[in-house]
Amino acid sequence: MQQSKSNSTERIHFVTGKLAEFSLRRELAALAPRAGFDYTIQVLNITVAALMTTEWVGKRIDVPPQTTRVLLPGYCRGDLAPLIAQLGLPVERGPHDLRRLDEYFGHRRESDYGDFDIEIIAEINHAPQWRLADILAVADQMRRDGADLIDVGCNPGECFSGVGEVVRALRDQGHRVSIDSLDPAEIGPAVRAGAELVLSVNSSNVEAAPDWGCQVVVIPDDPKSLAGLDATIEALAGAGVPLRIDPIIEPIAFGFAESLHRYVETRRRYPDAELMMGVGNLTELCDADSAGINLLLLGFCQELGVRSILTTQVINWARSSVRECDLARRLVYHAVTQRTLPKHLEPRLVALRDVKRLRPSQQDIAELAASIRDNNYRLSLDEAGVMHLFNGELHFCEDDPFLLFEKLLATEPRNLDPGHAFYLGYEAAKAVTARTLDKNYEQDRAIDWGYLTVEEHSHRLERQRRTRPEGPQDGNDQP
Q: What is the 3-state secondary structure (H, E, C) of 248-265?
Protein backbone atom coordinates (compact mmCIF):
# COMPACT_ATOMS: atom_id res chain seq x y z
CA MET A 1 0.00 0.00 0.00
CA GLN A 2 1.52 3.34 -1.08
CA GLN A 3 1.21 6.36 1.19
CA SER A 4 2.03 10.02 0.57
CA LYS A 5 3.02 12.55 3.22
CA SER A 6 2.24 16.26 3.39
CA ASN A 7 0.98 18.77 5.93
CA SER A 8 -2.61 18.30 4.76
CA THR A 9 -5.31 17.04 7.14
CA GLU A 10 -7.12 15.44 4.17
CA ARG A 11 -6.14 11.78 3.82
CA ILE A 12 -7.85 9.88 1.03
CA HIS A 13 -7.73 6.11 0.61
CA PHE A 14 -7.93 5.18 -3.10
CA VAL A 15 -9.10 1.69 -4.06
CA THR A 16 -8.22 0.29 -7.48
CA GLY A 17 -7.48 -2.86 -9.46
CA LYS A 18 -4.31 -4.21 -11.02
CA LEU A 19 -4.73 -2.73 -14.50
CA ALA A 20 -5.32 0.81 -13.26
CA GLU A 21 -2.60 0.79 -10.59
CA PHE A 22 0.18 2.33 -12.69
CA SER A 23 -2.03 5.10 -14.07
CA LEU A 24 -3.49 5.93 -10.66
CA ARG A 25 -0.06 6.20 -9.03
CA ARG A 26 1.15 8.49 -11.80
CA GLU A 27 -1.92 10.72 -11.63
CA LEU A 28 -1.87 11.03 -7.84
CA ALA A 29 1.86 11.75 -7.69
CA ALA A 30 1.25 14.85 -9.81
CA LEU A 31 -2.16 15.83 -8.44
CA ALA A 32 -1.91 15.37 -4.66
CA PRO A 33 0.69 18.12 -4.04
CA ARG A 34 -1.37 20.61 -6.04
CA ALA A 35 -4.74 19.61 -4.60
CA GLY A 36 -3.34 19.45 -1.07
CA PHE A 37 -4.19 15.98 0.20
CA ASP A 38 -2.36 12.90 1.46
CA TYR A 39 -3.32 9.54 0.05
CA THR A 40 -2.96 5.81 0.30
CA ILE A 41 -3.57 3.32 -2.51
CA GLN A 42 -4.96 -0.18 -2.04
CA VAL A 43 -4.69 -2.46 -5.08
CA LEU A 44 -7.26 -5.22 -4.72
CA ASN A 45 -6.77 -8.67 -6.22
CA ILE A 46 -8.83 -7.93 -9.31
CA THR A 47 -7.64 -7.08 -12.79
CA VAL A 48 -10.37 -4.71 -13.96
CA ALA A 49 -11.58 -2.17 -11.41
CA ALA A 50 -14.85 -1.78 -13.31
CA LEU A 51 -15.84 -5.28 -12.19
CA MET A 52 -15.90 -4.35 -8.50
CA THR A 53 -19.05 -4.06 -6.40
CA THR A 54 -19.32 -2.27 -3.08
CA GLU A 55 -20.22 -5.56 -1.37
CA TRP A 56 -17.10 -7.23 -2.74
CA VAL A 57 -14.91 -4.26 -1.79
CA GLY A 58 -16.33 -4.25 1.74
CA LYS A 59 -14.92 -7.72 2.40
CA ARG A 60 -11.41 -6.76 1.30
CA ILE A 61 -10.85 -3.09 2.05
CA ASP A 62 -8.20 -2.14 4.60
CA VAL A 63 -8.43 1.52 5.52
CA PRO A 64 -5.36 2.99 7.27
CA PRO A 65 -5.70 5.09 10.44
CA GLN A 66 -6.25 8.85 9.97
CA THR A 67 -8.10 8.32 6.67
CA THR A 68 -10.73 11.01 6.13
CA ARG A 69 -12.52 9.54 3.10
CA VAL A 70 -12.43 6.65 0.67
CA LEU A 71 -12.54 6.94 -3.13
CA LEU A 72 -13.70 3.95 -5.19
CA PRO A 73 -13.38 3.50 -8.97
CA GLY A 74 -16.10 5.30 -10.89
CA TYR A 75 -17.48 2.08 -12.35
CA CYS A 76 -17.77 0.31 -8.96
CA ARG A 77 -21.39 -0.82 -8.67
CA GLY A 78 -23.62 -1.14 -5.64
CA ASP A 79 -25.03 0.82 -2.73
CA LEU A 80 -22.48 2.96 -0.92
CA ALA A 81 -24.52 3.23 2.28
CA PRO A 82 -23.51 -0.17 3.80
CA LEU A 83 -19.83 0.55 3.09
CA ILE A 84 -20.12 4.01 4.66
CA ALA A 85 -21.71 2.44 7.75
CA GLN A 86 -19.03 -0.27 7.89
CA LEU A 87 -16.11 2.16 7.69
CA GLY A 88 -17.62 5.13 9.48
CA LEU A 89 -16.16 7.36 6.75
CA PRO A 90 -17.38 9.16 3.65
CA VAL A 91 -17.14 6.86 0.61
CA GLU A 92 -17.38 8.24 -2.92
CA ARG A 93 -17.03 7.07 -6.49
CA GLY A 94 -14.37 8.85 -8.48
CA PRO A 95 -14.53 9.71 -12.19
CA HIS A 96 -14.87 6.89 -14.72
CA ASP A 97 -11.64 8.02 -16.37
CA LEU A 98 -8.55 8.38 -14.15
CA ARG A 99 -7.33 11.19 -16.37
CA ARG A 100 -10.23 13.28 -15.04
CA LEU A 101 -9.11 13.07 -11.42
CA ASP A 102 -7.70 16.58 -11.69
CA GLU A 103 -11.14 17.87 -12.72
CA TYR A 104 -12.79 15.84 -9.97
CA PHE A 105 -10.64 17.65 -7.40
CA GLY A 106 -11.10 21.01 -9.12
CA HIS A 107 -7.60 21.31 -10.54
CA ARG A 108 -6.15 21.50 -14.02
CA ARG A 109 -3.59 18.90 -15.00
CA GLU A 110 -0.97 21.67 -14.85
CA SER A 111 -1.29 25.13 -13.37
CA ASP A 112 -1.90 26.74 -16.74
CA TYR A 113 -2.60 23.75 -18.95
CA GLY A 114 -5.37 24.41 -21.42
CA ASP A 115 -4.36 27.95 -22.37
CA PHE A 116 -3.58 28.77 -26.01
CA ASP A 117 -2.92 31.71 -28.30
CA ILE A 118 -3.35 30.19 -31.77
CA GLU A 119 -6.63 30.97 -33.51
CA ILE A 120 -8.36 28.22 -35.52
CA ILE A 121 -10.06 29.20 -38.77
CA ALA A 122 -12.14 26.26 -40.01
CA GLU A 123 -13.02 26.29 -43.70
CA ILE A 124 -16.23 25.00 -45.20
CA ASN A 125 -14.88 24.09 -48.62
CA HIS A 126 -16.91 24.69 -51.77
CA ALA A 127 -19.65 26.47 -49.82
CA PRO A 128 -21.66 27.32 -52.98
CA GLN A 129 -22.45 23.61 -53.33
CA TRP A 130 -23.92 23.32 -49.82
CA ARG A 131 -27.45 23.87 -48.58
CA LEU A 132 -27.60 26.71 -46.06
CA ALA A 133 -28.98 24.42 -43.34
CA ASP A 134 -26.02 22.06 -43.80
CA ILE A 135 -23.54 24.94 -43.65
CA LEU A 136 -25.03 26.10 -40.36
CA ALA A 137 -25.00 22.59 -38.91
CA VAL A 138 -21.36 21.99 -39.87
CA ALA A 139 -20.36 25.41 -38.56
CA ASP A 140 -21.98 24.68 -35.19
CA GLN A 141 -20.07 21.40 -34.94
CA MET A 142 -16.81 23.10 -35.89
CA ARG A 143 -17.36 25.68 -33.16
CA ARG A 144 -18.01 22.93 -30.61
CA ASP A 145 -14.76 21.28 -31.73
CA GLY A 146 -12.79 24.47 -31.13
CA ALA A 147 -13.05 26.67 -34.24
CA ASP A 148 -12.81 30.41 -33.61
CA LEU A 149 -13.80 31.54 -37.11
CA ILE A 150 -15.84 29.83 -39.81
CA ASP A 151 -14.33 30.36 -43.24
CA VAL A 152 -16.71 30.39 -46.21
CA GLY A 153 -14.74 28.75 -49.02
CA CYS A 154 -15.71 29.88 -52.52
CA ASN A 155 -15.07 28.14 -55.84
CA PRO A 156 -12.28 29.71 -57.93
CA GLY A 157 -13.52 31.05 -61.25
CA GLU A 158 -17.18 31.21 -60.12
CA CYS A 159 -18.94 34.10 -58.44
CA PHE A 160 -20.98 32.93 -55.43
CA SER A 161 -24.11 35.06 -55.60
CA GLY A 162 -25.40 33.76 -52.28
CA VAL A 163 -22.29 34.52 -50.24
CA GLY A 164 -23.89 37.43 -48.39
CA GLU A 165 -26.84 35.30 -47.31
CA VAL A 166 -24.52 32.58 -46.00
CA VAL A 167 -22.32 35.00 -44.06
CA ARG A 168 -25.36 36.78 -42.61
CA ALA A 169 -26.90 33.48 -41.49
CA LEU A 170 -23.65 32.41 -39.85
CA ARG A 171 -23.38 35.75 -38.08
CA ASP A 172 -26.97 35.44 -36.88
CA GLN A 173 -25.96 32.10 -35.32
CA GLY A 174 -23.20 33.87 -33.38
CA HIS A 175 -20.26 32.78 -35.55
CA ARG A 176 -17.26 34.87 -36.43
CA VAL A 177 -16.80 34.55 -40.21
CA SER A 178 -14.07 34.87 -42.83
CA ILE A 179 -14.42 34.74 -46.61
CA ASP A 180 -12.03 32.68 -48.73
CA SER A 181 -11.86 34.31 -52.15
CA LEU A 182 -9.72 36.54 -54.34
CA ASP A 183 -12.75 37.94 -56.21
CA PRO A 184 -13.86 41.40 -55.04
CA ALA A 185 -17.36 40.61 -56.40
CA GLU A 186 -17.65 37.90 -53.72
CA ILE A 187 -15.63 39.61 -51.01
CA GLY A 188 -17.68 42.83 -51.04
CA PRO A 189 -21.06 41.23 -50.22
CA ALA A 190 -19.40 38.96 -47.65
CA VAL A 191 -17.82 41.78 -45.64
CA ARG A 192 -21.00 43.86 -45.84
CA ALA A 193 -22.83 40.88 -44.33
CA GLY A 194 -20.35 40.71 -41.45
CA ALA A 195 -17.23 38.80 -42.53
CA GLU A 196 -14.31 40.10 -40.45
CA LEU A 197 -11.40 38.55 -42.35
CA VAL A 198 -10.61 38.17 -46.05
CA LEU A 199 -8.55 35.25 -47.37
CA SER A 200 -6.72 36.43 -49.43
CA VAL A 201 -5.13 39.54 -50.94
CA ASN A 202 -2.29 39.83 -53.46
CA SER A 203 -1.52 42.16 -56.34
CA SER A 204 -4.66 41.03 -58.18
CA ASN A 205 -7.13 42.55 -55.71
CA VAL A 206 -5.10 44.78 -53.39
CA GLU A 207 -6.62 47.99 -54.76
CA ALA A 208 -10.09 46.95 -53.58
CA ALA A 209 -9.00 46.02 -50.05
CA PRO A 210 -9.28 49.51 -48.48
CA ASP A 211 -13.00 49.50 -49.29
CA TRP A 212 -13.74 46.37 -47.25
CA GLY A 213 -13.05 47.80 -43.80
CA CYS A 214 -11.72 44.55 -42.31
CA GLN A 215 -8.52 42.61 -41.81
CA VAL A 216 -7.05 40.70 -44.73
CA VAL A 217 -4.60 37.85 -45.25
CA VAL A 218 -1.72 38.74 -47.57
CA ILE A 219 -0.29 36.04 -49.83
CA PRO A 220 2.59 36.28 -52.32
CA ASP A 221 1.91 36.30 -56.04
CA ASP A 222 4.47 33.51 -56.34
CA PRO A 223 4.83 31.44 -53.15
CA LYS A 224 8.17 29.93 -54.15
CA SER A 225 9.91 33.30 -54.44
CA LEU A 226 7.59 35.40 -52.22
CA ALA A 227 7.33 37.71 -55.25
CA GLY A 228 4.77 40.49 -54.77
CA LEU A 229 4.48 39.96 -51.00
CA ASP A 230 6.44 43.04 -49.91
CA ALA A 231 4.68 45.31 -52.41
CA THR A 232 1.23 44.15 -51.34
CA ILE A 233 2.09 44.58 -47.65
CA GLU A 234 3.41 48.08 -48.33
CA ALA A 235 0.26 49.08 -50.21
CA LEU A 236 -2.06 47.77 -47.52
CA ALA A 237 -0.05 49.33 -44.71
CA GLY A 238 -0.09 52.66 -46.54
CA ALA A 239 -3.88 52.46 -46.80
CA GLY A 240 -4.26 51.53 -43.13
CA VAL A 241 -5.63 48.04 -43.82
CA PRO A 242 -4.99 45.59 -40.94
CA LEU A 243 -3.34 42.42 -42.18
CA ARG A 244 -1.80 39.08 -41.43
CA ILE A 245 0.66 37.27 -43.71
CA ASP A 246 0.49 33.74 -45.11
CA PRO A 247 3.67 32.75 -47.01
CA ILE A 248 1.83 29.54 -48.09
CA ILE A 249 2.92 26.10 -46.92
CA GLU A 250 3.50 23.65 -49.77
CA PRO A 251 2.69 19.90 -49.84
CA ILE A 252 5.43 17.31 -49.49
CA ALA A 253 7.24 16.78 -52.82
CA PHE A 254 6.22 20.26 -53.98
CA GLY A 255 8.51 22.36 -51.83
CA PHE A 256 7.45 21.58 -48.26
CA ALA A 257 10.89 22.13 -46.69
CA GLU A 258 11.48 25.37 -48.58
CA SER A 259 8.03 26.65 -47.63
CA LEU A 260 8.85 26.21 -43.95
CA HIS A 261 11.99 28.23 -44.57
CA ARG A 262 9.84 30.97 -46.15
CA TYR A 263 7.84 31.24 -42.94
CA VAL A 264 11.09 31.73 -41.03
CA GLU A 265 12.25 34.30 -43.58
CA THR A 266 8.92 36.16 -43.42
CA ARG A 267 9.13 36.30 -39.64
CA ARG A 268 12.66 37.73 -40.00
CA ARG A 269 11.45 40.41 -42.39
CA TYR A 270 8.33 41.23 -40.40
CA PRO A 271 9.12 40.44 -36.75
CA ASP A 272 5.94 42.06 -35.42
CA ALA A 273 3.45 41.00 -38.09
CA GLU A 274 0.64 38.51 -37.57
CA LEU A 275 1.22 35.30 -39.55
CA MET A 276 -1.17 32.57 -40.67
CA MET A 277 -0.63 29.01 -41.95
CA GLY A 278 -3.02 26.84 -43.98
CA VAL A 279 -2.29 23.46 -42.40
CA GLY A 280 -4.76 21.70 -44.68
CA ASN A 281 -2.14 21.77 -47.43
CA LEU A 282 -0.42 18.99 -45.47
CA THR A 283 -3.22 17.15 -43.70
CA GLU A 284 -5.41 16.87 -46.80
CA LEU A 285 -2.55 15.89 -49.10
CA CYS A 286 -0.72 13.13 -47.18
CA ASP A 287 -1.71 9.48 -46.83
CA ALA A 288 -1.50 9.71 -43.05
CA ASP A 289 -3.77 10.34 -40.09
CA SER A 290 -3.98 14.07 -39.53
CA ALA A 291 -3.53 14.32 -35.73
CA GLY A 292 0.25 13.94 -35.70
CA ILE A 293 0.69 16.25 -38.67
CA ASN A 294 -1.46 18.91 -37.02
CA LEU A 295 0.54 18.67 -33.81
CA LEU A 296 3.87 19.10 -35.59
CA LEU A 297 2.67 22.05 -37.67
CA LEU A 298 1.14 23.78 -34.65
CA GLY A 299 4.37 23.21 -32.76
CA PHE A 300 6.20 25.00 -35.57
CA CYS A 301 3.61 27.79 -35.48
CA GLN A 302 3.86 28.18 -31.72
CA GLU A 303 7.65 28.51 -31.79
CA LEU A 304 7.66 30.93 -34.71
CA GLY A 305 4.78 33.09 -33.53
CA VAL A 306 2.24 32.06 -36.21
CA ARG A 307 -0.93 32.86 -34.31
CA SER A 308 -3.64 31.66 -36.68
CA ILE A 309 -4.11 28.52 -38.74
CA LEU A 310 -6.58 27.59 -41.44
CA THR A 311 -7.73 23.99 -41.42
CA THR A 312 -10.03 21.93 -43.57
CA GLN A 313 -11.94 18.68 -43.00
CA VAL A 314 -12.59 17.33 -46.48
CA ILE A 315 -10.76 14.03 -46.88
CA ASN A 316 -11.85 11.30 -44.49
CA TRP A 317 -8.54 10.90 -42.64
CA ALA A 318 -8.59 14.62 -41.77
CA ARG A 319 -12.27 14.92 -40.86
CA SER A 320 -11.50 15.62 -37.19
CA SER A 321 -8.79 18.22 -37.81
CA VAL A 322 -10.51 21.06 -35.95
CA ARG A 323 -10.70 18.99 -32.78
CA GLU A 324 -7.10 17.85 -33.23
CA CYS A 325 -5.89 21.42 -33.70
CA ASP A 326 -7.76 22.53 -30.60
CA LEU A 327 -6.03 19.87 -28.49
CA ALA A 328 -2.68 20.45 -30.20
CA ARG A 329 -2.66 24.22 -29.70
CA ARG A 330 -3.09 23.75 -25.94
CA LEU A 331 -0.33 21.16 -25.79
CA VAL A 332 2.22 23.17 -27.80
CA TYR A 333 1.40 26.36 -25.91
CA HIS A 334 2.16 24.67 -22.60
CA ALA A 335 5.32 23.03 -23.98
CA VAL A 336 6.75 26.26 -25.40
CA THR A 337 5.76 28.64 -22.59
CA GLN A 338 6.88 26.21 -19.86
CA ARG A 339 9.92 24.96 -21.81
CA THR A 340 8.93 21.36 -21.30
CA LEU A 341 8.43 18.40 -23.60
CA PRO A 342 4.90 17.97 -24.98
CA LYS A 343 4.68 14.56 -23.33
CA HIS A 344 2.37 12.98 -20.73
CA LEU A 345 0.11 16.02 -20.91
CA GLU A 346 -2.50 15.34 -23.61
CA PRO A 347 -3.31 11.61 -23.91
CA ARG A 348 -6.34 12.35 -26.08
CA LEU A 349 -4.05 12.91 -29.07
CA VAL A 350 -2.68 9.37 -28.71
CA ALA A 351 -5.42 7.53 -30.59
CA LEU A 352 -3.92 4.67 -32.60
CA ARG A 353 -1.83 3.30 -29.72
CA ASP A 354 -2.30 3.65 -25.96
CA VAL A 355 -0.05 5.78 -23.76
CA LYS A 356 0.99 2.61 -21.95
CA ARG A 357 -0.02 -0.99 -22.64
CA LEU A 358 -1.33 -2.61 -19.47
CA ARG A 359 -2.42 -6.23 -19.81
CA PRO A 360 -2.66 -9.00 -17.19
CA SER A 361 -0.21 -11.88 -17.29
CA GLN A 362 -1.36 -15.44 -17.95
CA GLN A 363 -0.77 -16.17 -14.28
CA ASP A 364 -2.97 -13.22 -13.22
CA ILE A 365 -5.79 -14.50 -15.41
CA ALA A 366 -5.34 -18.07 -14.19
CA GLU A 367 -5.56 -16.96 -10.56
CA LEU A 368 -8.59 -14.86 -11.32
CA ALA A 369 -10.32 -17.71 -13.16
CA ALA A 370 -9.62 -20.10 -10.27
CA SER A 371 -11.32 -17.74 -7.81
CA ILE A 372 -14.57 -17.40 -9.76
CA ARG A 373 -17.65 -19.40 -8.75
CA ASP A 374 -20.42 -18.04 -10.99
CA ASN A 375 -21.13 -18.95 -14.62
CA ASN A 376 -20.88 -15.47 -16.14
CA TYR A 377 -18.34 -15.40 -18.95
CA ARG A 378 -15.24 -13.22 -18.73
CA LEU A 379 -13.11 -12.35 -21.72
CA SER A 380 -9.57 -11.10 -21.28
CA LEU A 381 -6.46 -10.48 -23.36
CA ASP A 382 -3.15 -11.40 -21.76
CA GLU A 383 0.22 -9.70 -22.19
CA ALA A 384 1.07 -11.99 -25.12
CA GLY A 385 -2.19 -11.18 -26.92
CA VAL A 386 -3.84 -14.55 -26.21
CA MET A 387 -7.59 -14.43 -25.58
CA HIS A 388 -9.00 -16.09 -22.45
CA LEU A 389 -12.65 -17.04 -21.96
CA PHE A 390 -13.55 -18.26 -18.50
CA ASN A 391 -16.13 -18.57 -15.75
CA GLY A 392 -16.56 -20.71 -12.64
CA GLU A 393 -16.67 -23.93 -14.68
CA LEU A 394 -14.24 -23.46 -17.59
CA HIS A 395 -11.18 -21.61 -18.81
CA PHE A 396 -10.17 -21.64 -22.49
CA CYS A 397 -7.43 -19.69 -24.21
CA GLU A 398 -6.74 -19.31 -27.94
CA ASP A 399 -5.23 -16.85 -30.41
CA ASP A 400 -8.19 -17.36 -32.74
CA PRO A 401 -11.60 -16.26 -31.37
CA PHE A 402 -13.37 -18.80 -33.61
CA LEU A 403 -11.43 -21.62 -31.97
CA LEU A 404 -12.27 -20.14 -28.59
CA PHE A 405 -15.99 -20.28 -29.35
CA GLU A 406 -15.71 -23.75 -30.80
CA LYS A 407 -14.36 -24.90 -27.45
CA LEU A 408 -17.17 -23.14 -25.66
CA LEU A 409 -19.87 -24.64 -27.89
CA ALA A 410 -18.39 -28.10 -27.38
CA THR A 411 -19.35 -27.85 -23.70
CA GLU A 412 -23.00 -27.40 -24.76
CA PRO A 413 -23.44 -24.42 -22.44
CA ARG A 414 -26.93 -23.91 -21.01
CA ASN A 415 -26.53 -20.16 -20.51
CA LEU A 416 -25.51 -19.15 -24.04
CA ASP A 417 -28.63 -17.67 -25.61
CA PRO A 418 -28.40 -15.74 -28.92
CA GLY A 419 -28.10 -12.38 -27.18
CA HIS A 420 -25.25 -13.56 -24.99
CA ALA A 421 -23.49 -15.15 -27.96
CA PHE A 422 -23.76 -11.88 -29.87
CA TYR A 423 -22.33 -9.98 -26.90
CA LEU A 424 -19.36 -12.35 -26.57
CA GLY A 425 -18.71 -12.15 -30.29
CA TYR A 426 -18.74 -8.37 -30.13
CA GLU A 427 -16.30 -8.38 -27.22
CA ALA A 428 -14.03 -10.85 -29.03
CA ALA A 429 -13.96 -8.54 -32.04
CA LYS A 430 -12.90 -5.66 -29.78
CA ALA A 431 -10.18 -7.85 -28.27
CA VAL A 432 -8.84 -8.73 -31.73
CA THR A 433 -8.83 -5.03 -32.66
CA ALA A 434 -6.92 -4.19 -29.49
CA ARG A 435 -4.44 -6.96 -30.11
CA THR A 436 -3.90 -5.90 -33.72
CA LEU A 437 -3.04 -2.35 -32.66
CA ASP A 438 -1.24 -3.39 -29.47
CA LYS A 439 -3.81 -1.59 -27.34
CA ASN A 440 -5.39 -2.38 -23.99
CA TYR A 441 -8.63 -4.34 -23.81
CA GLU A 442 -11.11 -4.40 -20.93
CA GLN A 443 -14.34 -6.33 -21.22
CA ASP A 444 -17.44 -4.15 -21.44
CA ARG A 445 -15.39 -0.96 -21.86
CA ALA A 446 -14.80 1.06 -24.97
CA ILE A 447 -11.34 0.75 -26.52
CA ASP A 448 -9.45 3.96 -25.80
CA TRP A 449 -9.22 5.91 -29.06
CA GLY A 450 -8.15 9.14 -27.39
CA TYR A 451 -10.28 12.10 -28.46
CA LEU A 452 -12.22 9.77 -30.78
CA THR A 453 -13.38 7.44 -27.99
CA VAL A 454 -17.12 6.75 -27.88
CA GLU A 455 -18.08 5.42 -24.46
CA GLU A 456 -20.11 2.21 -24.42
CA HIS A 457 -23.15 1.28 -22.41
CA SER A 458 -22.44 -1.57 -19.99
CA HIS A 459 -24.29 -4.41 -21.71
CA ARG A 460 -22.79 -7.15 -19.55
CA LEU A 461 -23.61 -5.41 -16.30
CA GLU A 462 -27.16 -4.65 -17.42
CA ARG A 463 -27.59 -8.29 -18.38
CA GLN A 464 -26.35 -9.41 -14.96
CA ARG A 465 -28.74 -7.03 -13.23
CA ARG A 466 -31.64 -8.57 -15.14
CA THR A 467 -30.66 -12.16 -14.38
CA ARG A 468 -29.31 -12.16 -10.81
CA PRO A 469 -28.99 -9.98 -7.70
CA GLU A 470 -26.15 -7.47 -7.80
CA GLY A 471 -22.81 -8.45 -6.28
CA PRO A 472 -20.70 -11.61 -6.15
CA GLN A 473 -22.42 -14.92 -5.45
CA ASP A 474 -19.53 -16.07 -3.32
CA GLY A 475 -17.31 -14.13 -0.94
CA ASN A 476 -14.20 -15.26 -2.83
CA ASP A 477 -15.54 -14.41 -6.26
CA GLN A 478 -14.43 -11.64 -8.47
CA PRO A 479 -17.60 -9.80 -9.42
A: CCCCCCCCHHHHHHHHHH
